[in-house]
Amino acid sequence: MATHTFTFKVPDLQHVNSWEDGRTATGTLKMDGDSVKLWFIQGDMDPAPTLFATTFNEEHDSIGQFPPVTQAELTEVTLSPDTDKNKMFLWLAKHESVGELFDSDEWPEEVRVDTQIPNRPDGVTWKKLSDASWSPRWAWKLCMKDGQVDAIFKADENLTTSDMNAYKRKHNVKFYRDNYDLGTEADSDADAFMAACDQFIADNADVYAWMLTPEALVHETGLATRIPLAVATAINNIPEGDGMEFAYTPWENTAEAQKFTDYPDIIFHSDLD
C-alpha cells in the first residue's frame, strides 16, 4: 500500500469563506493501485453531483454492478493521486466510502482548544480546531463541477442571536427616526443607539452561531445594545392609524436580512485556484 502526502487549503477560520491568510494543512492518504474509480450522482436537492460509490470499497469494481436505472444516473471518473488536489479528493472519497478503514496517520486526532469568544465575558470560549487536527473533511465535501471532480466548501456563517437582535432593533428604530419627530432627546438617543448597534455588529464580525456552546448561549440574550427608554417611550406614544404602518417592512424581509437567511453562495475548491 502506497502512502501519499499532500497539502490542501484551509480557511482562515473554520466554516468561514475567507482565505486571505493562505493557510494550508498536510494530509496523508494510503491506497493500493495507481487509480480509483469514483461514481457521482445528482440528487434533487444537491447543488452539484455528489459521491455515490468508489472502488475503495472492495464490493465495487465496475459500474455494471449497479442496477441499470442507477447506472443511467451515474457519472464515472477515474482519479489518480498525481497532484495534491487529486490526493485530497481521493482522501475525501476514501473517507466517505470506507472511512472506518483509515489508518491513524491518515486520520489526525481531533484536538480542540478553548478560545475566548470576542466581546463575551472572560472565560466564555469556543472549541477551536487545532492546526494539527485539520483534515480535508473539516472544510470540504466531494462533488463534481462542469464534468470534473471538485469539492464544496462547508460554509456556515449564520448570525448569533445577539447580532440578529442588533440588526432588528436598529432597523425598527431607524424606521421611526426617519419618519417621525420623536423629540429632541429621543432623536439624539436614537442616533446614538443606531451608531452603537453598528459598532456592536462590527465588533462581533468574527463571532458565528456555530461557535456558541450551551454555556456561551447563556450570555447571548442581553448582549445587543438596548433601545433607550426615551426612544421606546416616544415610539409607543405615536398615535395608531396614521397610515405609516403600511410603509414598514420587517427586518426579516429586507435585503440586509436575506444576506444571512438565504442559502449561502456555493464555494467550490476550483473557485480558489
Brief overview:
With about 270 residues, the protein is an alpha+beta fold. It has 7 helices and 9 strands; from the N terminus they run E-E-E-E-H-E-H-E-E-E-E-H-H-H-H-H.
Would you kindly provide a written description of the structure presented here, covering whatever features stand out?
The chain is of the alpha+beta class and 273 residues long. The protein has two domains: 154 residues, no CATH class; 101 residues, no CATH class. Helix content is 29%, strand content 20%. The protein has seven helices and nine strands. The strands form four sheets. The protein has a three-stranded antiparallel sheet with strand order 4-3-5. A hairpin with an 8-residue loop joins strand 3 and strand 4. Helix 3 packs antiparallel against helix 4 and helix 4 crosses helix 6. The radius of gyration is 25 Å and the shape is elongated. The two termini are 30 Å apart.
Key terms for this structure?
9 strands, 273 residues, 3-stranded antiparallel beta sheet, alpha+beta, two-stranded antiparallel ribbon
| Approximate helicity band | 25-40%
* Number of structural domains: 2
The proportion of strand residues reads: 15-25%
Order of helices and strands: EEEEHEHEEEEHHHHH
The class by helix and strand makeup works out as: alpha+beta
> Shape, please?
elongated
Q: What is the typical, i.e. mean, pLDDT? A: 91
Major β-sheet, in short? 3 strands, antiparallel
Distance between the termini: 30 Å
What Rg, in angstroms, do the CA atoms define? 25 Å
Provide the low-confidence segments as ranges: none
**Strand order within the widest beta sheet:** 4-3-5
The total strand number stands at 9
Count of DSSP-assigned helices: 7
